[in-house]
Amino acid sequence: MPDKPKPMDAAQQKQLVESYIDAYNRLDVAGMLQPLHQEVVFRNISNGEVDLTLTGKGSFRQQAEQTLQYFSQREQRVTDWHISVDKVEVQLDYSAVAALDFPNGLKAGDLLQLQGKSVFEFKDGLIASITDIS
């Protein structure tokens, strides 16, 4: 009977999440993709509603490249870590500068600031799921 793969330790999980967030902050899509599982699932939840679900690295890449045009700079700053056996939850302060005018009234050059959290789950030594909640 084959050995069951052992779960990743907290340090490995944290390193993958830090790598992803660092690439995100640098607007580096290739770097964001590196720690992701081929079948990664990404969900965005705003005001309790799932408003975006993507499955697979290809879909994630396409969305990540598309959103680059929306902001001239952006930063996710981790304010708290919760690490358990199979997931990492980070509390975030998010800030971004709009690169264009948005339908909701945000204008190019305006600063957007929010707080939220991201939940990361793992498989095969990679990030298999990201849920952004704001």
From TrEMBL:
Pfam families: SnoaL_2. InterPro entries: NTF2-like_dom_sf (IPR032710), SnoaL-like (IPR037401). Residues 17-129 form the SnoaL-like domain. Gene3D superfamilies: 3.10.450.50. This is Nuclear transport factor 2 family protein. It comes from Hymenobacter metallicola.
